[in-house]
Amino acid sequence: MRFLAITAHAAGLLTIGVCMVLLWFYGSVVLPGELPTHPVSAKLIALALMFAAPAFPIQTLYPKRPAMAAAAIGWMPLFGSIMAAPIVTSDIVLNGGLCWLTIIAGAWTASHLRGGAEPHAWFQRAVIVAGLAILCIPVVLICAFALNSWRDGRDGKIFDRIELGATRADVIAMMGKADVSRPCGDNLWWGDDSSYRGKNDGRCVTEERYEHFLSAWGVGYSAEHRVVSKYHYFSE
């Protein structure tokens, strides 16, 4: 029972915290861009969202210590603001700090409005399920990235074996059907930037690409369906 209670609290903190990061990002980064002539209004809307959205969920899950729970949850957008500051703007850390304090104030206000009511069992169960689902997301992403890396490496080894003048049927037999087919570009390559074959004078008609995350293997064919170029695209 104690393990379930700890799981419920951890899942609750994680779920509400992730939601707060999303709300903070919208209110502090996206909304000012949508209201460029009303920066103060954008900031007030962000603070209102951070005040109201987590208040009752926090108080329902943690009726005895809502302010402490809010302080723990508020660290997530605050940490996010510190990490994003070098990329976005310097005052984004101040926005994160204000959001942190606002979350605490909202939970404290909700606890006084509800008088410390006990959390509903169904609400706890729903939060546990949502929290466990969020915990599974990194695992799924890691597995997907590992699978992509394996397939990318496999295609790269086959790509290296493709010879100039090989038929399209030979390439498909080795690598399978391509993901994308498009007209060839203005320049011809053989593998990477170090092997330039000159301008495309009409030799290359169609390029077929094998797509992966942050990587693609392109094979160029002539009108006779013979390989005339190949290129490894990375981080396009």
Q: Key features?
A:
236 residues, alpha+beta, 61% helix
Tell me what you see in this structure.
This protein is an alpha+beta fold. It has helices at residues 2-34, 39-52, 55-61, 66-84, 92-114, 121-161, 168-175, and strands spanning 180-183, 187-199, 206-212, 215-221, 227-234. It has a five-stranded mixed sheet, with helices on one face. Strand 3 and strand 4 form a beta hairpin. Helix 2 (39-52) runs parallel beside helix 5 (92-114), helix 3 (55-61) crosses helix 5 (92-114) and helix 4 runs antiparallel to helix 5. The radius of gyration is 27 Å and the shape is elongated. It starts with a helix and ends with a strand. The mean pLDDT is 77.
What's a quick, concise take on this entry?
The protein is α+β, with helices and mostly antiparallel strands and 236 residues long. It is built from 7 helices and 5 strands; from the N terminus they run αααααααβββββ.
Topology overview:
Elements: H1 2-34, H2 39-52, H3 55-61, H4 66-84, H5 92-114, H6 121-161, H7 168-175, E1 180-183, E2 187-199, E3 206-212, E4 215-221, E5 227-234
